[in-house]
Amino acid sequence: MKIDLQGQVALVTGAARGIGQAIADALSGNGATVAYTDREEKPAQEAAARRPPGRAYALDVTSEKQVEDVIGRVVHELGRLDILVNNAGVNTLAHRVPVDEFPRMEWDRILDVDLNGLFLVSRAGAQVMRRQGSGRIINITSIAGVVPLRNQCAFVAAKSAVANLTRAMAIELAPAGILVNAIAPGSTLTEGTRQLFYGPDAKFRESMQRLLAHVPLGRPGEAKEIAQAALFLSDPENTYVTGHVLVVDGGWTAGYIRDF
Fold it and tell me: The whole model's pTM is what?
């Protein structure tokens, strides 16, 4: 998909790898100047260096001060902020347990990044966009924000909150010319998931094969396919879609494949 983002400035959180990097690369490849942000600056710099004139910034989304400082720097150095992609997020593999066994510390960690961090970045970005009178905010939720999954109570809670927060933000910010949407990926092939789920020696390969039996397309998604959805929502010609959660999951949540 090719769109014209010349002259636009984008900021992507969690852009050093995986889905975040794919989205940042796609925006850059279509003409945007992209701020690659990640918790550690070096990986962000390495990702940005592949896509000049990309910029790199260290950003811990749970730090209110750092969020405001980085967005302030982006606007000061690049002049504006047109597209904000809230991709940074975490989950847990060590604590895939029912809610009555789930550790409070792990609950707080996941909610802090996946929900509180998204709120902080969105608030700071929306303030800039409101002054401009335009902007796009794209939140990365998950199919876990659309349907419940077992033994992932914190992730499900955070991602379902992101889905409804997206709708609320869309209602509030539409009069300022800001469109707010979300993307809900299904299981997506990245370097991390390849090692855990899809490689020949992956620890959770067997359970992932059972999962894929319920995906009509029969395979995991690719990060570049999630990036295509982000391009659609970023397209300047796409001016009337807001408050939408775009599911990109190979048909997983459309319904289970069963023989009756």
Answer: 0.94
